[in-house]
Specification:
mainly alpha, single chain, Gag protein
Length: about 260
């Protein structure tokens, strides 16, 4: 293993391996491997994403080939055995990445339904830093948007609704402060910043003898209510959000 390969893998040490059995993780994986890992040297990112084609100059082509080979080794190390079958006949990081994009970016009824369900069912676990929840639910939204046409993308406004709906009850004070903000509805980044710095209401919960649990929360009523307020014509779409994965139909909301 070359020092360059090791360097890239060090940057990706916290990145889970891409799995064809967990396709909802594709958006985050793709973003990290392109804009964090391969962007580090200022060159390999362009080779892998296809924006920097192989030079005609012989000396420059040698360097391009070397970086392309290193990128292939990194991608192989960051994908599981089942996923490697997708690009088994490809050689080089650029070709391998293109094969993965072709497979995971493809929108079908099955992939859309799975991505939609994963997004809406992402719950806040108070035993972990809230940043994990915020990153996860945003990644799942982005994965869903990758599969949707432009006019059906899930907006930041709708993402805020889902974040607050799926927020654990121990963050009730922070949630109320956001909903009752005197300065009006905060932007998505502001919501994340406020939630990250707020902390849970542990003292209050303990003082009343409450037991903190992570339990599924009924999201359907909240979605229908918002749809009725902001998108009356689409309200019927949200009545089946609590249906089993694979049984969810209709287009994703575009938010308020």
């Amino acid at each position: 293993m070359t020092s360059a390969t090791t360097g890239f893998l060090t940057l990706a040490k916290d990145l889970d391996k891409l799995s064809v059995n967990k396709a909802e993780g594709w958006s985050y994986w793709k973003e990290e491997i392109i804009n964090t890992v391969f962007a580090a040297d200022g060159v390999t990112k362009g080779i892998v994403n296809g924006t920097t084609t192989r030079p005609t100059d012989a000396e420059k082509a040698v360097d391009w080939d070397k970086r392309n080979t290193i990128a292939a080794a990194v991608i192989r190390a960051l994908t599981d055995s089942n996923t490697r079958s997708i690009y088994a006949n490809e050689d080089g990081g650029a070709a391998i990445f293109a094969a993965l994009c072709k497979r995971f970016d493809k929108s079908t009824f099955t992939t859309r339904s799975a991505a939609r369900a994963a997004f809406h069912r992402c719950l806040h676990d108070p035993s972990q830093p809230i940043s994990i929840y915020l990153d996860r639910i945003t990644s799942l939204r982005d994965r869903l948007n990758d599969l949707l046409p432009k006019d059906e993308k899930v907006s930041d406004t709708y993402l805020k609704d889902v974040i607050l709906t799926n927020l654990h009850s121990s963050y009730a004070t922070a949630k109320l402060n956001l909903l009752g903000s005197a300065s009006g509805e905060p932007e998505l980044d502001q919501c994340k910043t406020i939630l990250s710095s707020a902390g849970p209401d542990w003292d209050l919960l303990q003082s009343i003898g409450a037991t903190v649990k992570v339990e599924p929360q009924d999201m359907t009523n909240a979605y229908v209510a918002r749809a009725a307020r902001h998108q009356p014509r689409d309200a019927a779409r949200y009545r089946n959000l609590s249906a089993p994965a694979g049984g969810v139909s209709g287009s994703s909301p575009s938010g308020g």
